[in-house]
């Protein structure tokens, strides 16, 4: 089947029941999405599917033909980080960082549909994702920091 | 080194005296002290600071190649606490190089010193101190070497990012100053450290070196390792601890696509496949084909666990006894506190990669202790330890002894059965929750008497607990070691002696008490598997003591902060309490209706960092739901290496501890743990995250590092409990302080 990940089409020979997570990590060698629970309860595996946050651990690839998938790697790189990646680094919004990729993708989904979120809207949007180290204060700061950057970029694009 | 000789060295006159004997002893440890007669006996390391005591050679910590590459070695591991960055800061500072110049090698049994476990907030105290002094001594050697070459006194030389520069501008790169073996010398006590006022790297907010990869999808974890030819494995665990495998039908699993091999050794069962999801599907098929013989006996009912525990045989340990009760006390209070079993709950289930090649088993693991884990795995595999190598690679945050060591052993047992191929094993969520060692359930009882002036005149405290460490070192501590056909017996549980303590950690109050007794009732028998979780007994003991201090303050009619200050003599303790109270605005405006203020303080282990926490909580009258609204902490961790890193640790401690305190309780039935996912083991989510958390740091330039990674666990818990009591007028003493318990207490 054909899977569109980070703007590239991949022709993959996989069991259609395979959750997207294992295709991203195994077939495509992407590190961003993490296995946390396999149940859609922690958000470590969060990616975007057609711009909306999705749990890649419970989404079989058969459901994703023709959809655009974006992972953490699709937002930028170490040398050229995207606005949320930059904000997470600038705010030092991690301890172990295992949840970070999912947090960034969850926040990316929010800022794509609402780049002027209130504090309550940010917290509600982030609710599905767990952080065990207790870095949520920094994660919230990073999302607040990135929002105007995303907004400015969106306005520049018209 | 004597004061005289150090002055001589600093003045430069010692240069040749230093360099000649050191070169002469290049490869023959132990080298003679630089300016003394060679010792007749091996070096006495007891006066050396930090981990230099057990690894005294400078080149165990710092090496400099001829091209000037500086490599720093630590036996400690990055667990997400930022230790890589902090240790690099310490080394760069004392070596006078930019932060990005030194490379760092962390815990690896082939390369680094054996520093035991990365635990107990010891990394900066032990490894940071060793690297600090080793680097300072390397700097002295570099200066002395340069002085000899340039024929100038040391006092005329300066250090400039990897080079010694003479008064005439001549530059000697570090690489050119280090003949082979010159750093293979025993460290000397009394090294001159840089003056804190001159710091340019230590005490600054150097950004964490590991965060950019984590925020952009770079390989950052053992989970991300992709060695060529890697196969994926999953284990099939028994339905509950103690069950033995009676029969295994492998036909369905082995016929599945991608399946390479089923590995069985006694009750240890695993499957290896080409792809990860194939391994998961085969694991399920294999589990369906397994028939287990149940264990005998049943666990106590969860509701009765505390009565059950205190009814078990105990070994009594007297932590403190200066009891001398006075007659005529005005008031005596008693209270009993309990704490449920709780989970580490790492977000990423445990993982390891193992490969048996050319007779050597290499294991990449997120264990906290590569050397003890190696010893245990070598015993399990019946291999000599030299042929087993454990290399630390980061995993998800562990906060203590989670499944990391067991997963490393699982991977090794599987890799032995599939020689040559790298085996990547990851546990499933239900395996992590079902098999990780829990934080022990605990009980404490406190009694204290006040005199007419509101001063504590007698204190009597007892705590009941299982051990807080069943960490490996022996094959019997590993799940695989207990499951294989010829199983290893778990070693008998032991208490951890004070002053660090296990269940009794922080059971001795820091307060000035004229009459006090503290008894630890150590319970050897463990109904559920338990081990170390962040803070060990300190979480429960500080929760108990600091809750009880508030009860005493209330009985004395005193303000809780003033009451604590009245019983404190340690000036640093008082400074931390005062700073947190001021930062919070303690004693200022009253909280809104349904809200309460709470305060708590402890010095971790009474020998590490000082931490005071003031909080505001809100309590929803209808539901009993308690929320941490804001927290203000003050911390004294001695010399601060990375202020933002320290803040991050303490912020995290406050949020994690308040999650433990408000929500967390592992559930179990007659045979084992039943809270196998995040629905049955809820932790803090964003809707409950506080509005604000402030951490005030009290820097102590030049003072020894005081471990801080766990200092907030106890104070945060007690501050929340005290604020809840302030908000509701009801004292809750049974952790966790769930909404059902609050609801029952406030009678709605």
In terms of topology, how is this protein built?
The complex is a heterodimer of chains A (158) and B (748).
Chain A: E1 2-5, E2 8-11, H1 20-27, E3 46-49, E4 52-55, E5 68-70, H2 83-90, H3 100-113, H4 119-126, H5 136-157
Parallel strand pairs in A: 1-5
Antiparallel strand pairs in A: 1-2, 3-4, 3-5
Chain B: H1 3-11, H2 15-24, E1 62-64, E2 70-73, H3 83-95, E3 103-105, H4 123-150, E4 158-159, E5 163-165, E6 171-173, H5 174-177, H6 211-216, E7 231-236, E8 244-248, H7 251-254, E9 259-265, E10 268-273, H8 276-288, E11 290-293, H9 305-310, E12 315-321, E13 331-339, E14 351-357, E15 360-365, H10 370-381, E16 388-392, H11 404-417, E17 423-426, H12 429-435, E18 442-450, E19 456-465, H13 479-483, E20 516-522, H14 538-556, H15 560-566, H16 571-584, E21 595-603, E22 610-619, E23 626-636, H17 643-663, E24 692-697, H18 713-728, E25 734-735, H19 739-746
Mind explaining what this structure looks like?
The complex is a heterodimer of chains A (158) and B (748). Chain A has 158 residues and is of the alpha+beta class. In chain A, 38% of the residues lie in helices and 12% in strands. Chain A is built from 5 helices and 5 strands, in the order E-E-H-E-E-E-H-H-H-H. Chain A has helices spanning 20-27, 83-90, 100-113, 119-126, 136-157; strands spanning 2-5, 8-11, 46-49, 52-55, 68-70. Chain A has a 5-stranded mixed beta sheet, covered by helices on one side. In chain A, helix 3 (100-113) runs parallel beside helix 5. Chain A starts with a strand and ends with a helix. The model of chain A has no long low-confidence stretch (mean pLDDT 97). Chain B has 748 residues and is α+β, with helices and mostly antiparallel strands. Chain B has 3 domains: 3-211, Aldehyde Oxidoreductase, domain 4 (2-Layer Sandwich); 223-294 and 344-435, 2-Layer Sandwich (Aldehyde Oxidoreductase, domain 4); 442-468 and 503-746, Aldehyde oxidase/xanthine dehydrogenase, molybdopterin binding domain (Aldehyde Oxidoreductase, domain 4), CATH 3.30.365. In chain B, the strands form 6 sheets. Chain B has a 7-stranded mixed beta sheet, with helices on both faces. Chain B has a 6-stranded mixed beta sheet with strand order 12-20-19-18-13-25. In chain B, strands 21-22-23-24 form a 4-stranded mixed beta sheet. In chain B, a hairpin with a 2-residue loop joins strand 9 (259-265) and strand 10. The interface between A and B is large, with 55 and 64 residues.
């Amino acid at each position: 089947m054909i899977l569109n990940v980070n703007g590239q089409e991949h022709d993959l020979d996989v069991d259609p029941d395979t959750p997207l997570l294992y295709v991203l990590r195994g077939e495509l060698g992407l590190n961003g999405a993490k296995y946390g629970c396999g149940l859609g309860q922690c958000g470590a595996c969060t990616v975007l599917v057609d711009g909306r946050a999705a749990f890649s651990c419970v989404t079989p690839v058969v459901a994703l033909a023709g959809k655009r998938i974006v992972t953490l790697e699709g937002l930028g790189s170490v040398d050229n980080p995207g606005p949320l990646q930059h904000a997470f680094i600038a705010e030092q919004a991690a301890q172990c960082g295992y949840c970070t990729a999912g947090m960034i993708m969850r926040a990316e989904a929010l800022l794509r549909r609402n780049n002027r979120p209130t504090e309550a809207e940010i917290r509600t949007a982030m609710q599905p994702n767990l952080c065990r180290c207790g870095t949520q204060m920094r994660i919230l700061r990073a999302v607040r920091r990135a929002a105007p950057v995303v907004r400015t970029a969106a306005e520049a694009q018209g | 080194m004597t004061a005289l000789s150090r002055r001589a060295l600093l003045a430069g006159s010692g240069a040749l005296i230093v360099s000649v004997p050191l070169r002469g002893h290049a490869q023959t440890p132990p080298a003679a002290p630089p300016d003394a007669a060679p010792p007749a006996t091996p070096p006495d390391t007891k006066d050396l600071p930090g981990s230099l005591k057990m690894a005294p050679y400078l080149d165990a910590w710092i090496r400099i190649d001829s091209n000037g590459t500086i490599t720093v070695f630590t036996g400690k591991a990055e667990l997400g606490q930022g230790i890589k960055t902090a240790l690099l800061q310490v080394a760069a500072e004392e070596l006078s190089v930019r932060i990005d110049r030194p490379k760092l090698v962390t815990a690896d049994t082939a390369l680094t010193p054996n520093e035991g476990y990365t635990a107990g907030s010891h990394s900066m105290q032990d490894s940071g101190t060793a690297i600090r002094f080793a680097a300072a001594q390397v700097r002295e050697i570099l200066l002395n070497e340069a002085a000899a070459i340039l024929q100038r006194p040391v006092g005329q030389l300066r250090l400039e990012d990897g080079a010694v520069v003479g008064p005439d501008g001549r530059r000697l790169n570090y690489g050119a100053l280090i003949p082979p073996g010159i750093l293979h010398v025993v460290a000397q006590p009394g090294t001159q450290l840089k003056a804190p006022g001159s710091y340019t790297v230590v005490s600054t907010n150097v950004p964490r070196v590991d965060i950019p990869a984590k925020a952009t999808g770079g390989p950052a974890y053992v989970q991300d390792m992709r060695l060529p030819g890697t196969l994926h494995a999953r284990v099939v665990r028994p339905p509950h601890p103690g069950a033995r495998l009676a029969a295994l039908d492998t036909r369905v699993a082995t016929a599945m696509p991608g399946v390479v091999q089923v590995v069985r050794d006694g009750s240890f069962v695993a499957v290896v496949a080409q792809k990860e999801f194939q391994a998961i599907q085969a694991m399920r098929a294999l589990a369906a084909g397994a028939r287990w013989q149940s264990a005998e006996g049943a666990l106590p009912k969860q509701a009765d666990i505390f009565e059950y525990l205190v009814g078990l045989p105990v070994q009594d340990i007297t932590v403190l006894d200066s009891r001398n009760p006075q007659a005529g006390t005005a008031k005596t209070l008693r209270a009993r506190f309990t704490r449920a079993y709780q989970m580490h709950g790492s977000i990423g289930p445990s993982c390891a990669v193992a490969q048996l090649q050319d007779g050597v088993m290499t294991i990449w693991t997120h264990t906290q202790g590569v050397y003890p884990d190696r010893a245990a795995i070598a015993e399990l595999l019946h291999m000599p330890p030299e042929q087993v190598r454990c290399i630390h690679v980061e995993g998800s945050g562990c906060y203590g002894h989670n499944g990391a060591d067991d997963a490393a052993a699982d991977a090794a047992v599987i890799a032995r059965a599939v020689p040559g191929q790298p085996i990547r094993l990851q546990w499933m969520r239900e395996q992590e929750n079902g098999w990780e060692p829990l934080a022990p359930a605990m009980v404490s009882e406190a009694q204290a008497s006040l005199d007419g002036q509101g001063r504590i005149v007698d204190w009597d405290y007892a705590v009941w607990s299982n051990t807080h460490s069943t960490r490996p070192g022996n094959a019997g501590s590993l799940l695989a070691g207990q499951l294989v056909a010829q199983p290893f017996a778990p070693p008998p549980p032991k208490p951890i002696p004070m002053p660090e303590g296990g269940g009794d950690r922080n059971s001795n109050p820091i307060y000035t008490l004229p009459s006090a007794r503290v008894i630890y009732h150590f319970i050897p028998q463990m109904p559920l598997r338990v081990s170390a979780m962040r803070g060990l007994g300190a979480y429960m003991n500080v929760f108990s003591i600091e809750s009880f201090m508030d009860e005493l303050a209330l009985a004395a009619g005193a303000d809780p902060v003033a009451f604590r200050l009245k019983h404190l003599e340690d000036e640093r303790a008082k400074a931390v309490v005062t700073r947190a109270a001021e930062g919070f605005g303690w004693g200022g405006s009253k909280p809104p209706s349904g809200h309460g203020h709470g305060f708590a303080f402890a010095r971790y282990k009474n020998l590490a960092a000082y931490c005071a926490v003031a909080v505001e909580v809100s309590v929803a009258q209808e539901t009993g739901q308690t929320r941490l609204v804001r927290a203000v902490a003050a911390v004294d961790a001695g010399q601060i290496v990375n202020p933002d890193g320290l803040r991050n640790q303490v912020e995290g401690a406050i949020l994690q501890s308040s999650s433990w305190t408000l929500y967390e309780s592992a559930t179990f039935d007659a045979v084992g743990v039943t809270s196998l996912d995040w629905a049955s083991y809820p932790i803090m989510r964003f809707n409950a995250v506080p509005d604000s958390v402030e951490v005030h740091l009290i820097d102590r330039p030049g003072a020894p590092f005081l471990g801080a990674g766990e200092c907030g666990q106890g104070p945060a818990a007690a501050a929340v409990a005290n604020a809840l009591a302030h908000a509701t007028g009801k004292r809750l003493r049974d952790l966790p302080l769930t909404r059902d318990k609050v609801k029952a207490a406030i009678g709605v």
